[in-house]
User: Fold this.
Amino acid sequence: MSPSGTKVQKKMLLKSMLVALGASVLLTACGGSKGASKEGDGPTPIQMQTLNYATEFIDNTNPIWKEFEKRTSTKLDITWLSPSTSEEKINVMLASGDLPEVTFVESLINPQLQKMIKQGVFWDLTPYIKDYPNLSASNLAEMWTASKVDGKNYVIPRYYPSYGGGAFPILRKDWMDKLGLQTPTNMDQLFEVLKAFKEKDPNGNGQADEVPYAANPDTMGFVYGVFNGTQGQWKLKDDKLVPVITEDASRDAVLWLKKTFDAGLFPKDFAIMKYSQTVDLIRGGNAGGTSQSMNHAWVTGSKIREVVPTADYMPITYLENAGGEKYTPSGTPYYGVYLIPKKVPEAKVKKILGFFDYAYGKEGNELATYGIEGVHYTVQNGRKIPTPQSEKDHLGDGNMNNLIHLISDDMSIGAVGMPDDVYNRNVEIVNERKKIKTPNPGSELYSEAYNKYYPEISKKVSDMRTKVIIGKDTIENYDKFIEQLRNDPTLKQVADEMTEAYHKKMSSQ
Amino acid sequence: MRKRSSKPEAKLREPKRPLWPDLKRDRYLYVLALPGILFFVIFKYIPITNLVIGFQDYSPYLGIAGSPWVGFEHFTRFFSNPDFWMLLRNTLGISLMNLVFFFPAPIILALMLNEVRHQLMKRTVQSLIYIPHFLSWVLIYGLTYLMFSQSEGLFNKLLTALDKDTVDILSNPKLFWGMLTAQSIWKEVGWGTIIFLAAIAGVDPQQYEAAVIDGAGRFRRMWHITLPAMRNVIMILLILRLGTIMDTGFEQVYLMMNAAVTEVAEVFDTYVYRVGIRQGEFSYSTAIGLFKSIVGVILVVGANRAAKRFGQESLY
Assistant:
């Protein structure tokens, strides 16, 4: 081999080594830590992560983001999670142990989270909260009580109004008016209304092409709630929690759904439709209603009006069962929780709480949702009218407003551009709903056995229900199956643990 | 690396040679391969060590080092689960349907394409049948829904137009496996022909000419020349396919599943997703994944041995 040949070879070697080295550097860079943040006199850097429903995520060049940093003297590093992947991402993040300084978890009873709280991964915030006037304000007291774990506040709950949310019927008021029907208040009346939608041609085109209720199995959960007169998966009986799935009232609910399906009041593809498909159906203008939260009176209602200009999409207030128990959806006054891992020093914990204190106060709260007065909105007759700049800076549902929800019922019953008549009616409905207290004894209770076994059991039950409803299985088989479940030792263990958790919670409050 | 010997010589067993001179001589090739090797080591081999969490009650906070060991608890829970047999039956059922109906489809299609003499026609058909490969399963689910759903489906609308009753296809347990196989064939059959067409392209045209002179017809030529030329590729693909028999393609099954068909639709992959990711039971789902992998390895090794015994081309 000639000397020049060796040289060329050496060069080649060097180059290929560089490529390999470069590749390995790239690989390690991905796994690098991002937790290093310097403390100083300047603005405090805070890492956070949260759910974001916006279609376009903002970054630190956004004026609202900057305004928050200026007013709270912080430097925000926010990672947005898209709702479609948030569940997996949060679980993987918890599993990796690489937690941001403000960690968002969608559900307090996430099993990973529960274990980690017990292992002492997060700060107990109980002693600090009272020092922050906005956080400890009386209108938020219920939220702090409901989110306690073993009597302590490990989490900063993300406020969400108790009433107005949840999947509950919203019906085409214009169709009811046309056919001279009253708003239904019990299941029989609801059936009759839907039946009339089917038979009396409310869209007036001479064909029976209406779909009375855009339903799939998931949207009909409220039916079990109405028949049982309770919310959630558990019912309180003789001071014990019993699973709703094995109750006789649930059997009646299945039969009601079956009757409705057989009468052709649900789409034929009931069993296979995804939630988005039921929404498409109602938006198409040919369906009489579906189950949604109250803000959809406009979020979805406005879309129906694009097809049918006279459409009026109205949430119903409550439904009553045969025993006279009224049901309306309600929940804990928060959705999602923020936690601060112990690796964050105490001084910074106080800074972070300071940030939330500002955001939960009137000024910060309105900044997150409406932006800056004069720039993003103007006040007319006491209502904030958005300017074109508002949309440009991505205000409204999402982004900073998802980091901190608006502390007002408007969060669940209002929507951008909602006309006054729809809004005022929603206010009336939600005020009526607030008078109804449907019990939810299983709310925010955690048990090991529940997490391990209940999802499987619950899935089997809901599959069985669906099969009976669409006629793929018989009610006799359903009865046999439920009878088996009643004697199932695992379900009994789950129920016992839930009862225990319930009593523990009651005594700690 | 370079191919060191052809087959008959290999059987003679070369005397053992020290490794180092070889490594030194081919060093540039090895350096060239280094990024690829690193990729496999970092992303395939190092993660294997994490399988130990299948024998632990893994908690992220305590880490692998601190989590308590539970031995075979997760395996016991899995095998004693009454759903285990259902999961196994569905997984194997769907895989076997694929093996029997989907696997031969591209071979047949490649043979047919090979017989097309009009070049423009052949290329057009080839390009068209590649397209579905690039569609995501979500889109294919959407298309299936638009074709076969009861209220909006084209198929059922046709039936209604002909005054017949609509047919329930998507929530019918009897049709579910067939539906999955049909979807797989529709999506991947064209793409699958590529490798077989490549094998066919390697056939010496003189063989065909000689066969024609000997009076062999089209099917004779196909049977005696084209198919044997493809045999090695077919064997290798078949062995590899056996290794993935426990995988059923999560996305497709998950999207097509609904309450009415769960009994025939729930497979290992969807179960792991529900229990492992959604419920955060990482150790349990790792144990299931490990079980799947072991079955896969056994099948590949077994099939490879069998192929060798019958004197066919094998993987290694």
Q: What stands out?
A: Chain B has a mean pLDDT of 86. The first helix of chain B runs from residue 7 to 10.
